[in-house]
Amino acid sequence: MAGRSCMHYVRLVCSCIGVAVGLLACATFAVPSPYQHITASGLAFISAVFAAVCLTLHALHHRSVLQVYHSSETLNDLSKLGFCVFVIGFALTTWFIFDGVYHKMGMKPFADSPYISAVWSFMTAKWGILLWSASRMYSGLMNSGSLLGD
User: What are the transmembrane regions (predicted)?
Assistant: First the structure.
């Protein structure tokens, strides 16, 4: 049966954790408090969205219905989207780190810290590259016909 390997369960669990942590961080950084950081809140939400897309792909493959909801073309489009998100997230990470080092900014106060934004832009980039990888993997399985026989 499709998707019963140990690595597949690891992907499902990591995606679930990514969605939960992204949404919790979004809520934490959005409320008025000493930890309020609107940029990090937005990036955490975007990260959670792409973790949810990865979770959806893994769950559909786990249930052996991925070919019902996606074609090879839609998986290729998701792959392209994931790569674009990776590039943008990595560029933002580089910018936030450069900004913090250049202006000699510390980690506190949290509302002005570019390092917190760098962490969440990196997490967004990570989910972009994981979406790219998963959609390419499932597209390859679909093109080889191994998903159709499951």
Answer: 12-32, 38-60, 81-102, 114-134
Q: Which of 82, 31, 73 is nearest to 54 (CA)?
A: 82
Is residue 22 exposed (0-12), middle (13-18) or buried (19+ Cβ within 10 Å)?
buried
Q: How far apart are CA 91 and CA 108, in angstroms?
A: 23
CA distance 114 to 107: 8
pTM of the model: 0.89
Domain-by-domain residue ranges, the chain? 1-144
| Phi, psi of 114, deg, nearest 5 | -75, -15
Tokens of 149: 């026989």
Separation CA 149–CA 118 (nearest Å)? 43
User: Closest Cα partner for 31 from 129, 128, 111, 106?
Assistant: 111
Contact 65, 104 (CB under 8 A): no
Alpha-carbon distance of 61 to 59, in angstroms, equals 5
